[in-house]
Amino acid sequence: MKKVEQLTADKTSLESYLKGQAWLLLNEKITAIEIPGAGNMNFVIRVKTRERSFIIKQSREYVEKYPQVAAPVERALREAEFYQLISKKESIKNKMPKLIGVDKKNHVLNLEDLGNGVDYTFLYQKNMHLDVAELEEIMTFVAKLHKTINTKTNKARLPNREMRKLNHEHIFIYPYLSDNGLHLDDILPGLQEVGLAFKEDMSLKHAVKKLGDRYLEDGKTLLHGDYYPGSWLKTEDGIKIIDPEFCFFGDVEFEIGVTLAHLKMANQPDALVEKALKIYKDLNAIDDLLCKQFMAIEILRRILGLAQLPLSFDLEERKALLNEAREILVTKGIS
Ligand SMILES: Nc1ncnc2c1ncn2[C@@H]1O[C@H](COP(=O)(O)OP(=O)(O)OP(=O)(O)O)[C@@H](O)[C@H]1O
Ligand SMILES: [Mg+2]
Questions:
Q1: What kind of fold does domain 11-112 have according to CATH?
Q2: What is the average pLDDT across 247-269?
């Protein structure tokens, strides 16, 4: 069996690993190792030398922040495949870090350092608004991605089945299990009882199952797969998009539904949420109803599931969003 080298932030062993990959010159020394930003899934560090800096990202067989939780060990290689697929598409490529190198054996990426940017998760805080120019950048990037790389334009496929299975579990199954070990009252007192009504709603669960099956089917378009504020970096050179580890060929409605859900959970004005969809629709076709259904799914799972967000909504506000989501899924009819 191949032996995987587990990277650490130890300077001496890291220098020797990087030289082994020819990612450092023989006389080049590491001057600093930093944590570039908050992440959960992977081992991500910034390496600085006198000459340059770059980002090292290793995927392990578990979630970095929760080592007891298993995760597909080769996910960094799927992320690398995404970068390969966009490598000749300048307008998409320019908005993402360059892939400098891949170590397939140890599941490590060497990525261009985009600098000390912050991601857009600050949007969940009260009174934080995305301006229209930023929204344009975000929606235009994703529309271009979808238009450029799909089964009509590309022979290559990227099923990323294991990551999809993991996501499916977290989005479509886990939030609806009555006894999943998650105590919603620890997140917000009263949320457990609110959640119960959703876990017991059979018509809702039927709709969720249908959309879950659809998520697992192969679709026509290369998706980023996790297109939410945590994947948008605010840098000196404008907005950059990172972390396509959940990428796959799927339905554009899933991708955009997720984005709209996060704009709503970040309490952006309805007009801005509608504008996001409009910007997208002016560039690429989308089924509105299916998009809203996936939006509803993402709202439900983020409020009732394990992958919680730093939302500023109180219980009543969360309840209102959950009810709106249920309405979309149940009354708009999924047969
Ligand atoms: N190329 C880059 N340039 C600059 N900073 C970066 C770069 N890639 C990642 N970062 C920073 O590191 C953080 C973690 O990176 P990333 O999101 O790729 O890791 P992750 O483990 O997949 O995170 P998550 O658990 O959110 O999926 C990012 O939020 C960002 O702040
Ligand atoms: Mg990630």
A1: Phosphorylase Kinase; domain 1 (3.30.200)
A2: 98
**27-55 pLDDT per residue, tens:** 999 999 999 998 899 999 999 999 999 99
Pocket (CB within 6 angstroms of ligand 1): 36-42, 44, 55, 57, 97, 111-114, 119, 230, 242-243, 245
Report the separation in Å between the CA atom of 42 and the middle of ligand 2, taken as the mean of its atom positions.
Answer: 7
Q: Which of 228, 233, 247 to mutate to test the pocket of ligand 1 (most atoms within 8 A of CB)?
A: 233
Say what the pLDDT of residue 334 is.
59
List CB contacts of 63: < 8 A, sequence separation 6 or more: 40, 41, 69, 70, 71
For the domain made up of 118-330, give the CATH fold.
Aminoglycoside 3'-phosphotransferase; Chain: A, domain 2 (3.90.1200)
- For residue 272, pLDDT beyond 70: yes
Could you identify the atom of ligand 1 that is nearest to the CA of residue 35? 12
* Residue 187 to residue 179: CA distance in whole angstroms: 16
1 has a pLDDT exceeding 60: no
Report CA-CA distances (Å) from 109 to 20, 66, 257. 14, 21, 29
